[in-house]
């Protein structure tokens, strides 16, 4: 990528134009619906057609906003025709109403935002009848009791735009949206995407591409009519968040592979560009563009765009395992938010300054992010960023849930993806996980079934260590989704307390298992999984010997796992079409040699890096009363203490719920 800054912008413009032109053959005659090929979402084909229009119109809005009136492909005219047809209730291409389709509320925000950004080019040139029809289509959003998550901002953006052009809006709606957003702010720049069980537990990419983006655009749309001080409050929060987000992008350009809606891919750039646009970023302009360039190329170089120049459903390749029931053929075009930088003029510093190194390229780092409950480690030699997760799992603590692999695993990275077998869009049980495996700590029952973790409770996070606890359980229906999965009978097991210390490429993972009230002695086997890698079945073999397992990935990464204390049996578990990174995958695991002993420490050393670790930390164990302590000494002399307190045996939050 040896381009000048000006050539960089030209590349982004060409990419945007190619994406916009590629969808035109799939549009209806008057452009109101874009029916892309593929399996319809759970919302239906009519909704998907609106999604195709709205999400690409958002890309068109950013493309036109910073182009100085240059529009060689008549993007403005093409989408104006679609607006006229889609809002005409008598037109066969009409858009679904909000009453007919909830998803239409989501897409309304993209349309409103794009109309604001292109107001002189599109809105001001529409005839009065079309403008009124657009406002009539928006109007039922007023007073709608939107779901308690980022959806409130679809209402906020739509009503804000309507307010500026003579449409309907309601002050009570806007006041509620602002108040809820403040309630969901977890501190240090992090929002929970709504509350689950009354707590901040929902941390993922929606923090950036929704919870930071929309509030600032709300202020941009309203201008002087925005409440006093609101813009500064939102700017300060984004500024703080970007200090963390810059850590969560690998040298390969990949964002963290964690959370739902991963098929939106480089929408993860939305908050970075927004920081530049609103002067709300700690990043130098050259770092912002370097991150953006790297991420765009990461996905375009790994199969995100097919031969027809359409965005595919998946991550590096078409892959349905990371989808949700709401995912449809046009869903990936939420990635349009990754092109916000085009709304900045060509002479903005992000488009004129030279690129800067990424944080992970400047040197190794270890950080703790208290709000989401994450430990973070980046290593310059391989460019990998790892997150150890003892925070939110997107699950209500009031009942057990099946584990969603994108929320419930103990670790995520910029270079690996969790194992996600099945197709969550294919109906009940199609997304059932055969059992948590990679980066999971599970108990195996007599039938070999793995226990689930969600919901987990954070116990502590301090320095380079964190501890959480969960009640092992075996759901009868293990179908997973971000919102908890089915309310199904389950079998309860012991308490599992897990602590981590993370430095460099290695996590020391310590585990204790304690009986719950009324537990009978069992023959549960404790199993710990390491990092899954895409592998070449004909390439370098995966090796397991004694207490050590090692996997060599197709990208040169090494995943290894050592049972350092009480985990003498290692093996490698193979996967077929179960990982977004490749058709074949492998995961190292270690386990106890027989039933796990209650109240004892088990230690695993979990490594992910560009080579085998040069050395392993030394770990000793001891008891301090009922607390078990893992004393970790690293090769450079640094020391961490992982303290695992005993579970309260009589505590049973689910005693009145249905059990199998």
From TrEMBL:
<feature type="region of interest" description="Disordered">
    <location>
        <begin position="414"/>
        <end position="437"/>
    </location>
</feature>
<dbReference type="Pfam" id="PF10022">
    <property type="entry name" value="DUF2264"/>
</dbReference>
<dbReference type="InterPro" id="IPR049349">
    <property type="entry name" value="DUF2264_N"/>
</dbReference>
<protein>
    <submittedName>
        <fullName>DUF2264 domain-containing protein</fullName>
    </submittedName>
</protein>
<dbReference type="InterPro" id="IPR016624">
    <property type="entry name" value="UCP014753"/>
</dbReference>
<feature type="domain" description="DUF2264">
    <location>
        <begin position="8"/>
        <end position="357"/>
    </location>
</feature>
């Amino acid at each position: 990528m040896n381009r000048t800054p000006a050539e960089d912008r030209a590349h982004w413009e060409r990419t945007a134009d190619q994406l916009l032109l590629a969808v035109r053959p799939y549009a209806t005659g008057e452009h109101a619906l874009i029916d892309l090929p593929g399996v319809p979402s759970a919302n239906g084909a009519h909704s998907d057609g609106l999604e195709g229009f709205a999400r690409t119109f958002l890309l068109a809005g950013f493309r036109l906003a910073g182009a100085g009136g240059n529009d060689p492909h008549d993007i403005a005219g093409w989408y104006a025709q679609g607006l006229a047809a889609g809002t005409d209730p008598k037109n066969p291409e009409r858009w679904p109403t909000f009453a007919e389709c909830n998803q239409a509320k989501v897409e309304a925000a993209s349309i409103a935002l794009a109309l604001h950004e292109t107001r002189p080019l599109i809105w001001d040139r529409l005839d009065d009848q079309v403008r009124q029809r657009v406002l009539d289509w928006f109007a039922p959003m007023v007073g709608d009791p939107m779901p308690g998550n980022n959806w409130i901002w679809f209402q906020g953006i739509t009503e804000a735009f309507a307010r500026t052009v003579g449409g309907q809006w309601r002050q009570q709606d806007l006041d509620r949206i602002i108040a809820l957003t403040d309630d969901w702010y977890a501190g240090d720049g992090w929002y929970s995407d709504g509350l689950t069980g009354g707590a901040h537990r929902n941390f993922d990419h929606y923090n950036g591409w929704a919870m930071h983006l929309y509030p600032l655009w709300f202020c941009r749309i309203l201008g002087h009519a925005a409440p006093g001080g609101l813009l500064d409050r939102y700017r300060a929060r984004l500024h703080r968040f970007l200090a963390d987000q810059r850590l969560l992008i690998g040298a390969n350009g990949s964002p963290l592979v964690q959370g739902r809606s991963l098929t939106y891919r480089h929408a993860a750039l939305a908050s970075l560009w927004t920081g530049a646009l609103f002067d709300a970023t700690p990043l130098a302009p050259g770092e912002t563009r370097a991150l953006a360039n790297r991420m765009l190329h990461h996905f375009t170089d790994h199969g995100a765009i097919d031969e027809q120049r359409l965005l595919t459903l998946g991550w590096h390749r078409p892959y349905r395992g990371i989808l949700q029931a709401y995912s449809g053929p046009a869903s990936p075009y939420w990635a349009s938010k990754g092109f916000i930088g085009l709304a900045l003029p060509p002479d903005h510093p992000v488009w004129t300054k030279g690129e800067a190194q990424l944080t992970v390229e400047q040197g190794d780092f270890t950080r703790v992010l208290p709000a989401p409950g994450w430990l973070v480690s980046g290593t310059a030699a391989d460019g990998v960023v790892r997150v150890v997760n003892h925070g939110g799992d997107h699950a209500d603590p009031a009942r057990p849930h099946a584990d969603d692999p994108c929320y419930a695993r103990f670790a995520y990275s910029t270079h690996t993806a969790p194992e996600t077998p099945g197709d969550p869009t294919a109906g009940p049980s199609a997304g059932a996980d055969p059992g948590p495996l990679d980066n999971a700590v599970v108990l195996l029952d007599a039938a070999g079934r793995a226990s689930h973790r969600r919901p987990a409770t954070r116990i502590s996070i301090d320095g380079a260590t964190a501890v959480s606890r969960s009640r092992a359980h075996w759901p009868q229906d293990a179908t997973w989704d971000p919102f908890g999965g089915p309310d199904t009978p389950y079998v309860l097991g012991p308490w599992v307390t897990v602590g981590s210390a993370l430095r460099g490429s290695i996590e020391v993972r310590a585990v204790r298992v304690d009986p719950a009230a009324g537990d009978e002695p069992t023959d549960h086997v404790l199993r710990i999984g390491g990092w899954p890698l895409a592998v070449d079945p004909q390439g370098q073999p995966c090796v397991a010997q004694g207490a050590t397992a090692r996997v060599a990935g197709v990208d040169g990464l090494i995943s290894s796992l050592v049972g350092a204390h009480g985990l003498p049996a290692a093996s490698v578990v193979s996967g077929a079409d179960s990982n977004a990174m490749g058709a074949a995958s492998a995961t190292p695991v270690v386990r106890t040699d027989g039933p796990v002993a209650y109240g004892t420490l088990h230690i695993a050393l979990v490594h992910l890096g560009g080579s085998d670790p040069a050395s392993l930390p030394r770990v000793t164990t001891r008891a301090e009363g009922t607390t078990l302590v893992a004393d970790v000494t690293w090769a450079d002399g640094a020391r961490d203490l992982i303290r695992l307190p005993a579970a309260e045996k009589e505590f049973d939050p689910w005693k009145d719920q249905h059990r199998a």
